[in-house]
Amino acid sequence: MKKQILIKTKSKKCKIVIENGSINTYLKSELRTDSKKFIIIDSKVSKKIDKIIKNKKNVFLVTVKGSEKLKSISSYWKIISKLLQKKIDRSSTLISIGGGTVGDLCGFISNTILRGVKFSLIPTTLLSQVDSSIGGKNGINSKYGKNLIGTFYQPDIVIIDPTILRSLPLKQLRTGYAEIVKYALINDKNFFIWLKKNLKDILLLKKNQLNYAILKSIKIKEKYVINDEKEKLVNSSSRAMLNFGHTFGHALELINKYHSNLTHGEAISIGMILAAKISYRMKNIRRSELDDIIYHFKQAGLPYSTKSVINNKLYKAISADKKNTNNKINLILLKKVGEAYYKRGLNITELKNLIN
Ligand SMILES: NC(=O)c1ccc[n+]([C@@H]2O[C@H](COP(=O)([O-])OP(=O)(O)OC[C@H]3O[C@@H](n4cnc5c(N)ncnc54)[C@H](O)[C@@H]3O)[C@@H](O)[C@H]2O)c1
Ligand SMILES: [Zn+2]
């Protein structure tokens, strides 16, 4: 069944469609109109849409390889140059088809080229369907860190077609699942209970369970985005709550030089377990709840052991986190399962004491 969500922020109304087969339906109708369409597509999914775009006038295709390396100033420049060469204009639409890396780059391009063109986002990984395609954040990386260059720019439409995930490797499915569990842990205890029952079916891509998990995740993210589009708040409604597990996760990704052997979802899984452990040591959650969380990650095939990652490199990387202020570390912790809060102003010694 088709589900639609309209996310209304101060800057734009963004329509999100969740439906099996929606990529075909959307492209067929969109490509009928006269304006120019620029499709930036991940090579892993390009075969699936070749037929639809074949012989279409005014459609320009750029095929890319989705990876963290793609989010660079050099790919930005390469693609921008191609679009300008093909005379992209203000009535053109940029269509991104790929995972979070393609989407993050395309969002930045669509906002900056000609000071903004129409932007359609078609996420093709579970992570991008439940997370990166929602909320309008985009960006590229630099040698100083991840996502340090970027803007907020809401897409006009997001097309989520869960059937595109059939070709996604299990490791990538799990990585997206990590963000789904994150939503449950920070905001919805009943969703966590539901996930424990339905984990297997979600990873097997069973339609009802998968589509519900995606819808529910988007609904939770939507609440934070509407309340705090530009991540200005510092309370429990802040968009920063979505960074649960990410302070540690980003640090691990940085240490690992963003190598694909540790995916984003895997890194934040270790991060979430660390944050849950600290939440337990601060007497916010019970030992049994911590064990329950660890057990669920284990069942999902996500990393859950934190021993091997705790070292000076980790603390150094954490000290460079974007959320830190005045050299103090700000962490998102659990008040309880289903509720997160901002723990501000920890110094590194306090953090070490909590972890060790
Ligand atoms: N903007 C945001 O709010 C936000 C939020 C979370 C994450 N992100 C960003 O998202 C990025 C990670 O996204 P990702 O996990 O989708 O990574 P990705 O784009 O690198 O995709 C992962 C892999 O899956 C392949 N792939 C894509 N779709 C496929 C399909 N249907 N079948 C088979 N293979 C497919 C890609 O080629 C790639 O090898 C990170 O850069 C992260 O910073 C952004
Ligand atoms: Zn994330």
CATH superfamily of the largest domain: Dehydroquinate synthase-like - alpha domain
The overall number of domains is 2
- Overall average pLDDT: 94
Total beta strands: 11
Strand content: 15-25%
Tally of helical segments:
13
**Element-level helix/strand string:** EEHEHEHEHEHEEEHHHHHHHEEH
The hetero molecules present are: nicotinamide-adenine-dinucleotide, zinc ion
SS content category: alpha/beta
Question: What topology, given as strand order, has the largest sheet?
Answer: 1-2-9-6-5-3-4
CATH class category label of the largest domain: Mainly Alpha
Which architecture name of the largest domain does CATH use? Up-down Bundle
**Helical percentage:** 40-55%
Distance between the termini: 49 Å
Largest sheet: 7 strands, mixed
